[in-house]
Design goal:
It is built from twelve helices and twelve strands. It is an alpha/beta fold. It has one domain: Inosine-uridine Nucleoside N-ribohydrolase, Chain A, CATH 3.90.245.10. Strands 3-2-1-4-5-6-12-9 form an eight-stranded mixed sheet, sandwiched between helices. It has a two-stranded antiparallel ribbon with strand order 7-8. β2, α2 and β3 form a beta-alpha-beta unit. The structure holds alpha-D-ribofuranose and calcium ion. The site of calcium ion (CA) has 8 residues, from loops.
Length: 315
């Protein structure tokens, strides 16, 4: 049976690749809608990118909802150095012909979830800062009964990428992340522990470049990553945002640990750190539920093959 999913995103190069792979897995994943959130670029840019991408992929009937234009408390922190001034690397998308479904963010997500057929639930797949998800859960608490799990790209139980201690999505809106992680909803945390093992290599970008018009767009996005200071000379780039979707396709290809996770909401070097609070040495355990499944490992060869297979299927 196909799994209902809602994607919350800040496209974003790896977001665009992940969403394209998710649509290519339509036999397993039913994308009920997409909401945008300020993150990699401004809300205007990421929303235009989401509209253009769904049109490019022939999915113009899928609802796109404009979400939060900034984190709950912190200032926005666009990552133009990593995703480019238009958010999609070397691709400068034209204005989409399709229109926005709603600009009501969390309220529109709530409406879509509650309109699902009776008895059906949904998996939320946030792959940007968690602002919209926090607003949804706090504004409409009854929605939780229809959410079976949240499979998010974010966090790290090892080191960070935006700082030494924090991963970008969590660091951008730590208060939102703490609200979501303490919501009691089962969470699968696809953090840097596993996403930094989920790579595409330069030769695969070249393969995409010559595979077809849509794949050429993917390659022009991804090449920007390779040319960026973050990845220059590394020969491979992490496909962070594809991990939640490939986990949903074959969770047995991943392994992890159940933990209590709290998010540091300080202003210091620990801002946005996802802290494992039930470690073996932590003697003051509070007995909190271990509701976060932290992914630690993956069959990396399978990941690369599966992602490429999904991306290559567009004609
Ligand atoms: O740290 C990686 C995350 O930050 C990804 O979601 C990427 O798109 C950026 O938003
Ligand atoms: Ca993202």
């Amino acid at each position: 049976m196909r799994k209902n999913i809602w994607i919350d995103t800040d496209p974003g190069i790896d977001d665009a690749i992940a969403i394209s792979a998710a649509f290519a897995a339509g036999e397993r994943l039913k994308i009920i809608g997409i909401s945008t959130v300020a993150g990699n670029q401004t809300i205007d840019i990421v929303t235009d990118n989401a509209l253009w991408l769904t049109e490019l992929l022939g999915q113009s009937e899928v609802p796109v909802v404009r979400g939060a234009d900034r984190p709950l408390i912190r200032a926005p922190h666009p990552a133009g150095n990593v995703h480019g001034e238009h958010g999609l690397g070397y691709v400068v998308p034209p204005k989409a012909a399709r229109t926005l479904t709603s600009d009501q963010g969390a309220a529109a997500i709530y409406k879509a979830v509650m309109e699902l057929p009776e008895g059906e639930t949904i998996t939320l797949v946030p792959i940007g800062p968690l602002t919209n998800i926090a607003l949804l859960l706090r504004t409409f608490p009854d929605v939780s009964a229809r959410i079976d799990q949240i499979v998010c790209m974010g966090g790290s139980a090892v080191e960070g990428n935006i700082t030494a201690t924090a991963e970008y999505n969590i660091w951008t809106d730590p208060e939102a992340a703490e609200i979501v992680f303490q919501s009691g909803i089962p969470i699968v945390m696809c953090g840097l522990d596993v996403t930094m093992k989920c790579l595409l290599r330069q030769e695969e970008i070249r393969q995409l470049e010559h595979a077809g018009e849509i794949q050429k767009q993917f390659s022009r996005m991804l090449q920007f990553y390779f040319d960026s200071a973050a990845y220059r000379g590394k020969g491979a780039v992490a496909m962070h945002d594809s991990v939640p979707f490939l986990y949903l396709l074959r969770e047995e290809m991943f392994s992890g640990e159940h933990h209590v996770i709290h998010v540091s909401c300080t202003e210091d070097t620990c801002r946005g750190m996802t802290i494992v609070c039930d470690g073996a040495y932590t003697y003051q355990q509070k007995g909190e539920p271990k509701n976060v499944y932290v992914l630690k490992d993956v069959d990396a060869a399978w990941f690369g093959r599966e992602l490429m297979e999904r991306l290559m299927c567009y004609s």
